[in-house]
Design goal:
This protein has about 60 residues and is mainly alpha-helical. It has one helix and no strands. Helices cover about 95% and strands about 0% of the residues.
Amino acid sequence: MGLRKYKDHLKEEIVIQEGIQAIIIGVQDIVGLTTTVGMEIVTIMVIRKDIDNTQSTN
């Protein structure tokens, strides 16, 4: 009897942990997307700065 209760509790724990992991993965995906977009914007800005610098020296 006690063992069955423990198993049910364990199942609940696993479901909760899986849910948390799914949320964490989702958050990481969102953060990954925003950082890659941010990096692209930064690289574009850096390239533009380089172009401006080469044009001003010529």
